[in-house]
Amino acid sequence: QKQAEQAAKEQAIEEAIANDQNVAEIGMVKVPPGATVAELAELLGVPASDIVKRLFLLGNPLTLTQSMSDELIELVADDLGREVKVMTKEEENSFTFYDDPADLLPRAPVVTVMGHVDHGKTSLLDAIRHTGVAEGEAGGITQAIGASQVKIGDRTITFIDTPGHETFTAMRARGAKVTDIVILIVAADDGVMPQTVESINHAKAAGVPIIVAVNKIDKPGANPDKVRQELTEYGIIPEEWGGQNMFVNISAKKKIGIDELLETVLLQADVLELKANPNTFASGNVLEAKLDRGRGSVATVLVTRGTLRIGDAIVAGMSYGRIRAMLDPKGRPVKEAKPSDPVEILGLQSVPAAGDEFRVFTEEREARSLAEQRALKARIEEQNRVKHVTLETLFSTMEDAEVKELNLVIKADVQGSIEALQDSLDKMDQSEVRINTIHSAVGAITETDVTLADASNAIIIGFGVRPDAKARAAAEHQGVEIRTYSVIYKAIEEIDAARIGMLKPTEEEHQTGSAEVRDTFKVPKVGIAAGCMVTEGEIGRDDNVRLVRDGIVVFDGKIASLRRYKDDVKSVKAGFECGIGLENFQDIKPGDVIEGYKIVEVARTE
Ligand code: GDP
Fold this sequence. Notes:
alpha+beta, 5 domains, globular, Elongation Factor Tu (Ef-tu), domain 3, binds guanosine-5'-diphosphate, six-stranded antiparallel beta barrel, Rossmann fold, 32% strand, 16 helices, Arc Repressor Mutant, subunit A
């Protein structure tokens, strides 16, 4: 009888696949890796106590908030007579649909241009757009949407025009991998710059091949070979030197080398053998979306599979609707879009987010119900958000995990600190936990760093630098840990301790308040004092304080005097002005931020 049941189930799965249904809809439950006991209970729709009991009987007592290994998840589900599949968000996206290899046809590569500001991203995209227009189409090159396409002979390349690694990584954080190839643009008169490195790290973290366009070769000071040399330090090595990366010298301004660059993209695409099934219901990702006064919700989407048509009922993230109209990258109305085609669509009821997956349903009713389910799930997820790894939980997380690695994003005040820290990390015993620095750079901790850490489950280490307000908010929202240090050995000590699960009761920093320096003036005995406005919380006379200038900590110490008008006061609350003098520190400037904090001893929770 069991066999008959199994056969029936397998047939149902096959049918579902044939009908393009989500496999999950017919009984197989998708579980993210590292799900906690409570999460698994919710996904399976059983009381958590049932799972706790079974875990206990299996000799693995766990509490509700502890996460489970893949094996354990499968074991418990099996025990409950349920079928589960443990998969990451990315796997989930590719798993949902099944295509017979025979149905797959070649598709155009999707390319993103990244690089340091002013190195020529915009100019390159412009130059490329003109290339495609040569055949008597000129004049009508108003770019309507955040993507474009060029034709080279009978082949097409799609460019995503929202340059910048932020968008790129924000999409990846949502499980969307839309870019096949990254063109890294580096100005030959400027060389490798901070955002060049950032771009490399973002592309590498996503596992996307990099083609280097060495730009501005028309300039007198241009030295393309120096760029090649500099990039080797970051593991970007030209093919002619035995490496993996194709390089092309170009001038975006003088339109030199553009054709060769496009040919190179096609070569790289050939290596990747990009394919998709065009003859099915469409699915893909939202590239950008906005609310337009006249037209309502307007979304630019990239089709990754199937053919999208006017009249289709679709779900994009938490919004749904029926496609009223579609525009191609030149703003011309089109009736359908195929894999790798970007189109602007009208007809969604609300505005989806960049990176959201979209897919077509046969019935609008189904689309609506999925959108509503997702909205509900998002609310639940928001409530029990999955925390990222932290130094404190590193060891217990590692015990369950298959891959034992610690990803770090390191930001510091000077390059020397990064090198010193990296040096010590390299010397650490990595036999049990591999330590990967996925990005390091000089400067304040920014929102981009948090996005990268979020997408890569990394911890951010700040060394003599602080997160800005946006970064702090993002980190809190995404559950990304930021640890800041002022001495290297302390950072090393803690990472080392976390690695072996011995992180001692930690001293935790509690922010008390923050004040903006509006003005400075001389005060007898104190020297230079700052006229401040407290913008957040409350600054206390006995608090420790940091003076932060452009995200860099320039002073860390005590307050020498805290006054309101002429009176010494104990503390000043947000919304009030005050005068602050710092102990043995005079170099205060308008625009600086004074952050107050207290050190509190926190016992470890486990
Ligand atoms: P983005 O910030 O990376 O988008 O850079 P832009 O495309 O805006 O280019 C920055 C500046 O560099 C502009 O003034 C461009 O005119 C100039 N530029 C871009 N490409 C070239 C080039 O190939 N040669 C020269 N001489 N200037 C260029």
